[in-house]
Specification:
The protein has helices spanning 65-77, 89-102, 120-125, 133-141, 172-185, 190-206, 213-216, 271-280, 285-289; strands spanning 32-36, 57-60, 82-87, 109-114, 145-148, 151-155, 163-165, 167-171, 218-224, 227-240, 260-265, 292-296, 299-304, 308-310, 313-315, 318-324, 328-331. By secondary structure, it is an alpha+beta fold. It folds into 2 domains: 4-148 and 327-331, Rossmann fold; 167-310, Tumour Suppressor Smad4 (Sandwich), CATH 2.60.200. The longest helix has 17 residues, at 190-206. 40% of the residues are buried. It comes from Novosphingobium pituita.
């Protein structure tokens, strides 16, 4: 079940009466819906309030996709204008994916409380680690928002429900994500975990032969605007709509908006020489010549024989449309 975040999610902290009191200029108090993941990394063992002022805040902890759909339908009926997601990147992906259908693509404002292991989205949004519900409500009232368009994944023939996320990858990225689960179990998180995982993936790729599973890649067929771009094995396809990636990495080159792709053909050529320029955003003719390709595209058609990763979760391959979704309005601090 994809909604395992409901068994891994986060709580709501540092609530004060002033967060829900009418403002001095008599602005109406917003209706806020909180979807919490009580077992997210940062929320495990945290003291959590048992009661919130229901007149202003609806707090729910759904345990399945159907329950999440019911909760979001309630938010629509109750006139919720701010959805607060308390959890990590996987929690955000699941809520946004279901909300996209419930709200028919017209989502209200979204706030995220960074409670996960990596929190790539909140790093890009510039949210501090202590960001909480009261902060989000205050920022919403002050109209402090940033737009980010998600990656929209659609399976042909509607084989699975559409998914919205922010970091898509396959090939070595899928293997590295599985490796990262072991890294987290060792107590390493956020930037430290990212660097440790990259180092392990690099070593496994560098010292294996071309038939090594880390080097031989996965078969992918990519087309755009009805024209096939390539059909071959790729060491890596990585895509994101984020401007800033975790740990300051710049695999897509210069910072910019849009849906960005990095494709590395298999087996990777001159990996030892090219890994640092790729990760630090260098843009050189040598990278392109060695098969390290950076491209921007609003929509591609992708056929995969194996699974892919979206925001830390493994999904089955097949015939996919990978596109830039409609922008979502995220609530952020004033200085973000």
């Amino acid at each position: 079940m994809k909604l395992d975040f409901m068994h891994q999610g986060g709580g709501v902290t540092k609530l004060h009466a002033r967060d829900f009191a009418p403002s001095e200029d008599n602005h109406p108090i917003p209706r806020v819906g909180v979807i919490s993941n009580p077992r997210s990394h940062r929320n495990r063992g945290r003291a959590r309030p048992t009661a919130l002022p229901e007149a202003y805040v609806i707090k729910r902890e759904p345990s399945s996709r159907n329950e999440l759909m019911s909760v979001l339908t309630q938010f629509v009926n109750e006139g919720v204008e701010l959805i607060v997601i308390d959890g990590g990147d996987g929690t955000v992906r699941d809520v946004l994916s279901v909300a996209h259908g419930v709200y028919r693509g017209k989502l209200p404002r979204i706030a995220v409380i960074p409670s996960g292991k990596t929190n790539a989205l909140t790093y890009d949004l510039g949210l501090p680690s202590h960001w909480n519900l009261g902060d989000a409500i205050a920022a919403h009232a002050a109209d402090h928002t940033i737009d980010r368009a998600p990656i929209h994944i659609h399976w042909n023939n509607n084989a699975l429900p559409d998914q919205l996320g922010f970091i898509f990858g396959l090939g070595v990225f899928s293997r590295a994500t599985m490796l990262a689960q072991n890294v987290h179990r060792k107590g390493l998180f956020n930037g430290v975990a990212v660097f440790f995982t990259l180092a392990m993936a690099f070593l496994k790729s560098l010292f294996g032969g071309d038939r090594n599973s880390w080097r031989r890649g996965d078969m992918a067929r990519v087309s755009r605007n009805g024209v096939e771009i390539f059909a071959e094995r790729v060491y890596l396809i990585l895509a994101s709509t984020l401007r800033k990636m975790p740990a300051g990495l710049r695999p897509f080159g210069r910072v910019r908006d849009g849906l960005k792709f990095l494709t590395v053909k298999a087996p990777p050529r001159a990996l030892a020489r090219n890994i640092l320029p790729v990760l630090t955003g260098a843009e050189t003719p040598e990278l392109e010549a060695d098969g390290y390709l950076r491209r921007d595209a609003d929509r591609i058609y992708l056929s995969l024989d194996r699974s892919f990763i979206l925001d830390g979760e493994q999904f089955p391959g097949g015939n996919l449309i990978v596109s830039r979704g409609e922008p979502i309005h995220f609530v952020v601090p004033a200085n973000a």
